[in-house]
């Protein structure tokens, strides 16, 4: 008989099942609020400060971005606030890394489909562009509640006309 395999040699680094459920809902709410452009829901799940690392997609890293600044960036008309852009952020597999009792990193497979229309009436498609990535998401407990505290996308590849989807954050 072979000896029992120890799956995780450091059990204190495991997240609880309750945290797993809460964090799973949190990442779903992050993705779905982007896709629904439900900015009130997104605002309700984010931490007071976030780490946003867009260096792998040609932008910069913000270590302590205020929640209001994050919301202004995400809802900007040159980004997801553009009413002619529809998205669907599909999550694949996820694994969780417990950093401490108040910090967890989620590693998420992600396919983000983007469709841009000619007008905000959403009648005629102008272009499509999709991204395939893994996202490192940061989660922090704030006053005993898990919050989304930032992200670091690692794009594997983009397809179609993804580089034309967003107008920019000028």
The Cα radius of gyration reads 18 Å
Our estimate of the beta-strand percent is: over 45%
CATH architecture: Roll
Strand order of the largest sheet: 2-1-6-5-4-3
Largest sheet: 6 strands, mixed
Helix coverage percent: 10-25%
Mean pLDDT, nearest integer? 93
Question: How many domains make up the 3D coordinates?
Answer: 1
State the helix count.
3
Structural class: alpha+beta
- In CATH terms, what is the fold-level topology? Nuclear Transport Factor 2, Chain: A
Total beta strands: 6
Uncertain regions spanning at least 5 consecutive residues: none
Distance between the termini: 65 Å
Overall description:
This protein has 170 residues and is an alpha+beta fold. The chain has a single domain, classed as Roll (Nuclear Transport Factor 2, Chain: A), CATH 3.10.450.50. Helix content is 21%, strand content 46%. The chain has helices spanning 17-36, 39-45, 67-74, and strands spanning 46-53, 61-66, 85-100, 103-117, 125-142, 145-160. The protein has a six-stranded mixed beta sheet. Strand 4 (103-117) and strand 5 (125-142) form a beta hairpin. Helix 1 (17-36) runs antiparallel to helix 2. It is globular, with a radius of gyration of 18 Å. Keywords: Lyase.
